[in-house]
């Protein structure tokens, strides 16, 4: 067929006879058998010793094709080995000259499946495949597919659109994987979104594939960073910031200095990576990070855009926020004010740089965001006063109580706290981490006191996936409280259900939590929650699926009617309606 013809067309250019030549010979000859024999002699393997061996093989019924095929395979293996050897020997110019000549000779046969591996191998070892050949490969889907990644890199670096098509599905997959973890049905305070170490995360499939595609090619690395910036701007999705850091550190692990030395964020990211691993910024590393920030020179401010993206990675924010909470507790013990702690101020500086990433990259105005004085002089002292309230309450509980009645836990929240949570992004982020902290300590009183402040927060941060994922994990530590009507009303009616109808993700998180803890919830409350959480017409598949799972579980857990009626309660008159047992 035409496909075959196209495959073997290259043979004629090399003066090798192909099927067409044989057809022509046979059409124009008088003695076909003689002609075939002559064609075989002219085009067979030219070894005198074979003249006698071939008839011998014929006697054993070994087809000539099988013989030629095995000779051919043997030769091809030798040739492939030879090409790889040429690529490593002699002077650089000479070895590449040899390979280029070989490519010139063999390229016309690139469509022959048997020869193709050799041509591909030659191209793979050429640091610069001639432009014309690259164009031919690019124009042919099958050839492009069969190419080694070394050749594809040469094609990609001048074809951003084509490279984008290859990278795009990987980036989609990456975001999906992150979302699957945040919404996973396994809820635990031990294992959460932030549990895997940076090194483990970098072994992920997408990071590894991108690292492989980039190789040592700075141009391709820059393209990927450009894609990540553009997508971050378009979607505000912070997982792209994580990938930005993971990719750089993956190249760092492989010691690809061609790229690491030209990325101005390399040392900063490396230092921050160590902090993320420890989930804490210690004093020594704090100094180092500060040195990088203070060292941004006039005229190089653009690097702040990159640094802010590295700091906007949720894993970085998580580490900075946890460190901030730890510092605040230490300050309470030392009787020191926040403004007197340089370490704390540095953490806030990095938090605001990270939280300001989107605005900075969007506006292209590269300067550090101004720190609001009020955050340091009013908000953080407020948080510290909550820590003090807890200490006082705990101590009071332990004192002998003849003189006084029980001291109630402070139940009101200072108005200033609520206002900060609504109006200041950094305050809100730290406030949310403080709430996660008290939940993890199983401090029910403090949790219920601050919960009302979560209904309205800066840009709805309390309803973001990462916070709800962490909160539901920590709430499993308070699972016994779910039997209490009052606790459930505060948590569900007072917080979750205020947003369920307008935010699909909140609906999903509540259902996840109930799937996990339904057996702890008071039955009457559970029933009303099941109704309140029914999917609407607008609900997506995930919500419907979760609600079905919950309904199935509740069906299984319902006590049977017999159990319910067997123990009539003594205070009430016995029912006159016949019970199923007496029928």
TrEMBL record:
Ranges where the record places region Disordered: 554-583
InterPro entries in the record: COBRA1 (IPR010405)
Protein name per the record: NELFB factor
Signal sequence region: none
Any one GO BP annotation for this protein: negative regulation of transcription elongation by RNA polymerase II
Residue ranges that the Swiss-Prot or TrEMBL entry lists as coiled coil: none
A Pfam family assignment: COBRA1
A single cellular component GO annotation: NELF complex
Lineage start: Eukaryota, Metazoa, Chordata, Craniata, Vertebrata
Organism: Thryothorus ludovicianus
Domain of life of the organism encoding this protein: Eukaryota
Designated gene of the protein: Nelfb
């Amino acid at each position: 067929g035409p496909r075959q013809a196209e495959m073997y067309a290259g043979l004629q250019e090399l003066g090798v006879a192909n099927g067409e030549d044989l057809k022509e010979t046979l059409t124009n000859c008088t003695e076909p058998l003689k002609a075939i024999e002559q064609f075989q002699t002219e085009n067979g393997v030219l070894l005198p010793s074979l003249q006698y061996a071939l008839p011998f093989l014929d006697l054993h019924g070994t087809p000539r094709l099988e013989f030629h095929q095995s000779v051919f395979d043997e030769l091809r293996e030798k040739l492939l080995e030879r090409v790889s050897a040429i690529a490593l020997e002699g002077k650089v110019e000479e070895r590449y000259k040899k390979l280029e000549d070989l490519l010139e000779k063999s390229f016309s046969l690139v469509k022959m499946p048997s020869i193709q591996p050799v041509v591909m191998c030659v191209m793979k070892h050429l640091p610069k495949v001639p432009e014309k050949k690259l164009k031919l490969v690019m124009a042919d889907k099958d050839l492009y597919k069969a190419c080694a990644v070394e050749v594809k890199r040469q094609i990609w670096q001048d074809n951003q659109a084509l490279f984008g098509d290859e990278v795009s599905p990987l980036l989609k997959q990456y975001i999906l994987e992150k979302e699957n973890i945040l919404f996973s049905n396994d809820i635990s305070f031990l294992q959460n979104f932030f549990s895997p170490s940076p090194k483990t995360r970098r072994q992920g499939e997408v990071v590894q594939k991108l690292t492989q595609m980039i190789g040592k090619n700075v141009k391709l690395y820059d393209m990927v960073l450009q894609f990540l910036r553009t997508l971050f701007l378009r979607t505000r999705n912070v997982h792209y910031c994580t990938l930005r850091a993971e990719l750089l550190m993956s190249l760092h692990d492989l010691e690809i200095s061609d790229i690491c030395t030209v990325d101005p964020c390399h040392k900063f990211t490396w230092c921050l990576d160590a902090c993320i691993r420890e989930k804490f910024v210690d004093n020594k590393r704090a100094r180092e990070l500060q040195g990088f920030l203070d060292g941004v020179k006039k005229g190089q401010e653009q690097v702040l855009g990159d640094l802010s993206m590295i700091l906007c990675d949720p894993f970085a924010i998580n580490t900075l926020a946890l460190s901030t909470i730890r510092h605040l507790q230490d300050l309470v013990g030392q009787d020191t004010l926040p403004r007197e702690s340089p370490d704390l101020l540095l953490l806030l500086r990095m938090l605001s740089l990270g939280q300001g990433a989107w605005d900075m990259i969007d506006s292209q105005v590269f300067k550090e965001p101004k720190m609001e004085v009020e955050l340091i002089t009013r908000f953080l002292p407020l948080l510290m006063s909550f820590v003090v309230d807890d200490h006082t309450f705990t101590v009071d509980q332990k004192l002998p109580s003849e003189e006084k009645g029980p001291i109630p836990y402070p139940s009101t929240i200072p108005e200033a706290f609520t206002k900060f949570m609504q109006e200041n992004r950094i305050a809100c982020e730290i406030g949310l981490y403080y709430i996660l902290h008290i939940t993890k300590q199983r401090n029910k009183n403090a949790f219920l006191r601050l919960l009302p402040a979560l209904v309205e927060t800066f840009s709805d941060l309390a309803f973001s996936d990462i916070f709800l994922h962490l909160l539901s994990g920590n709430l499993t530590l308070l699972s016994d409280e779910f039997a209490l009507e009052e606790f459930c009303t505060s948590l569900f009616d007072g917080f979750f259900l205020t947003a369920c109808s307008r935010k699909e993700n909140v609906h999903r998180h509540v259902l996840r939590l109930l799937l996990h803890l339904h057996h702890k919830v008071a039955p009457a409350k559970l029933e009303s929650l099941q109704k309140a959480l029914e999917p609407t017409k607008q609900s997506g598949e995930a919500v419907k699926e979760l609600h079905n799972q919950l309904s199935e579980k509740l069906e299984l857990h319902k006590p049977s009617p017999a159990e319910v009626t067997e123990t009539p309660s003594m205070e009430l008159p016995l029912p006159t309606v016949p019970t199923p047992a007496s029928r």
